[in-house]
Write the structure tokens for this entry.
Amino acid sequence: MDAPSGQNHAQARTLRAEPPVAWITVAGLSGLQATSRCDTRPTNRTGGPLALKHPKARTRRAADLAIAPHFSLETTELPRHRLPDGEMPPDVAYQIVHDELMLDGNARLNVATFVSTWMEPQAERLMAECFDKNMIDKDEYPQTAEIEVRCVNILADLWHAPDTEEATGCSTTGSSEAAMLGGLALKRRWQKRRAAEGKPTDRPNLVMGINVQVCWEKFANYWDVEMRLVPMEGDRFTLSADEAVARCDENTIGVVAILGSTFDGAYEPVKEICDALDAFEEQSGLDIPVHVDGASGAMIAPFLDPDLEWDFRLPRVASINTSGHKYGLVYPGVGWIVWRDAKALPEDLIFWVNYLGDNMPTFALNFSRPGAQVVAQYYNFLRLGHDGFRSVQGYARQVATRLSGLVEELGPFELLTRGDELPVFAFSLKSTIDNFTVFDVSNALRERGWQVPAYTFPENRTDLAAMRVVVRRGFTHDMADMLVADLQRQLPRLERQPEPVHDEAAGGAFGH
């Protein structure tokens, strides 16, 4: 699900008042200088501008960009929020944009995101060759379409679908879209069954843990489905079988089980949930399907936990989504959804589109999108195979478990998870530490370029503030040692603080 990391519904951020502005000078190409007026403070608590342009959003406003004479370019001011009147040399345009992007963080030092930040040069070259290919135009690019079908078959086989030759699924822009498509299929199947029984279809609900990614809140909001959220309790940070069944009734369209929580990297007990729903059906007669949100774990468990039953080996699992751009090891822009069989995807959700001479099926929330990421996914499947994926994901888990142990040995921290499921672990401060917070630690690490998120847990554990480290391909034991060394470098200063400096509101809080 893209996370990275994304935002959890329980941690939506509010906006602040207008920021002050200041003049800044930016060096340009070959001595070219630009002076502009822009905000000096971030536009939301996460430290960056909101992605959605909206009148109520605090989008950064800057004055026109003043450019000094450069060869044939006359002295002029460039508007930042409307098209300029004329052209400029490509090198000048490149340098202006390039220099502004230097303010972004170093992606390799970002241990907040689940999204891939490294691919092999050969994969990058293939993606460059496919930047201009429209994934929806299957008549014009039939081999790219064939590659998409092969990827669906590979995933169906990996997840033990009953008939991989007739696998039903598709690529998406990310695991969030894939999850929504899975939810739509659950809702439509429930509606058809209820209508056939002559029962009302106006009160659908979906059961899930409060630790779900924000895409599920969007799904519930956009398609009028009640979210039945199971809160955290004590040391239970994920959905349990008993809590899931307790919230099911005749209006439940399904239960969402997460294979790898974004809060702490833990797997939810998919088999236990399915077994409990089996017993519930025997008692009530209600057949409630399970959707597995495997945004991260569906590309970890098949290689590192092959005996774990979480996929289509469980008859109650109707659909699975994953993110190709997380542990599928592809740059951002691809997700996957696979259904158990064609019956799990109602045909009236499929659109048959006559496009450029070909009548083709499509089930998506958008239409045109690039084919490069799908091609890159197939490259990874060919390049790595079972052994390669096992090696890459296994190395990530080794780094995560070793790093979590080193963090624990530092003294002030206690682990919530150890990185032995997803290569992800969460840790908090010991209860005896009262003069600095995890938000202080996160801000201190930013001074060295690290992005390590600090956040509070949702209902009913809002008292718990934690940090999280995501180990991805490209994050090595050496980088883990550097992170620990920087923690050691910052701790003495933090321990000398008389009282906390940053809290969730002031410390660049992170959202799932």
Observations:
- Confidence is low (pLDDT under 50) at residues 1-50.
- The first strand starts at residue 21 and ends at 27.
- Residues 372-409 form the longest helix (38 residues).
